[in-house]
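sorry for the late reply, my laptop died twice this morning and i had to redo everyting from scratch. anyway the thing you sent over, i finally got around to it. pasting the sequence first so we're on the same page, its 135 residues, then the predicted structure underneath. double check i copied it right bc i was rushing
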Amino acid sequence: MAVDDLRQSPMMAHLLDALERGEDIGHHGRFTFVTIARHFVGEKELVALLANDKDNDEAKAGALVEQVVARGYNPPRRERILEWQQDQEFPICPTPEDPDSCNPYRELNFPDEVISSIEEYREHKFEAHHDTDNS
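ok and here's the structure:
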């Protein structure tokens, strides 16, 4: 898997292009980028891509990648991306008016373990919610 695979998502292509231009994609943009891109490129390449952000450097990029990997953050849903976008100048989602855009799960083919992890999380959340309803 590689950067070319990431470009299948218009949102990720938008973020990659901005990084290539040295733009500041914002805190949430960087977090969104890392949580998604880590499933397609190696950590060194990810740090190098993220270090292009003018408000970032290699040390900050490495720390963010390390944190996301260590905590096993899953890619955010479209709704979360749009919510985060409200908190910063840079538009993470270039076409928020299109309801089919900026959904990484629709736009990209994630490894099976990512999908399994998300399904497991949702099952636990459902069970926890129903356990409290029955109390």
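The chain is about 60% helix and 0% strand.
thats about all i looked at so far, will dig more tmrw
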